[in-house]
Amino acid sequence: MKKVFIATTTFGNDDPTILSLLIKEGVEYTLNPFERRLNETEIKDVLSKGIYDGLLAGLEPLTKDVLFQAKGLKVISRVGVGLDNVDQSAAGARNILIFNTPGVLTDAVAELTLGLMLAALRKVSFLDRKMHTGQWEKVSGALLKGKLVGLIGFGHIGQRVATLVKAFGAEVLFFDVCKTNSLDAQQVELEQLIRTADIISLHSSGKECLIEANEISQMKQGVIIVNTARGILIDEGALAQGLSSGKVGCAALDVFTQEPYQGPLLKFDNVIMTPHIGSSAKEARIMMEKMAVENLLKGLKG
Ligand code: GLV
Question: Would you say 30 and 48 are in contact if contact means Cβ atoms under 8 Å apart?
Fold first, then answer.
């Protein structure tokens, strides 16, 4: 009987029948007993016992060290799209197959992005916090209509965000390392996007930091920055300075360099934060989990 460790903490919550797919295929599973993201030592400990043939993976660090100790592991099936937590060359060297679930979380992340933009523009979180403390105070926000939205990364999610914001009457510019033709938006250099956009939203893979103090200094006064991609893309210290000086009007962040996040951005009223829930819409979770199980079973069958 094949054995699988399920590292994501919410697996099966939206549709428990997905777990029975594994049982039907004769696969025994263990749920993550920590009920939170495992750190490197913890996942190494789990995988080095040589019990598991497969891993339904979240965003725990699957480093070279972890993968070289993961005795008997044959398949990593990411429940999600990003593979920045997986050392792919180490997996290749160990003949571990890697799968992910592209496409199925596009709408979920794009809709969250739009929600964060609107919440930032109309100061929803700030006013909500006030009302919860008994304060009835009106503050003007601004429209999305007529704004210039700069998208950094123009893959499936970036393109979907472009379509959504254009429906609100916003203009779109995008930067992407690949040359991309788009009817919806104009491709520009990163520097032009940074200098001209009213709202900057990140949708690139999390390889390197793109927004540091220098980039923030070139942005429009009061710019809104939205990040639903990866925390590493923004230097959080530089962002905190930009927020303090008023250069950045609002940051809406779903992702952080350290998750769970406990850092200094918590103290800013003009920062909206969500706990990495880009894909956490039940329709998307169900599709992702089904696809991840199908990928896993395919991989285990070789
Ligand atoms: C979520 O962040 C993912 O990569 O799927």
Answer: no
Look up tokens 């997905």; give the residue: 18
Picking from 152, 172, 154, 161, the residue whose alpha carbon sits closest to that of residue 117 is 161
CA distance 146 to 14: 38
CA distance 166 to 160: 10
d(CA 177, CA 154): 9
Q: Which of 78, 156, 160, 276 is catalytic?
A: 276
pLDDT in tens, 197-246: 999 999 998 789 999 999 999 999 999 999 999 999 999 999 999 999 99
| Per-state percent for the chain, helix, strand, coil, to nearest 5 | 40, 20, 45
Q: What is the pTM of this model?
A: 0.95
Question: Quick check: CB of 101 below 6 Å from ligand 1?
Answer: no
pLDDT tens profile 237-252: 999 999 999 999 999 9
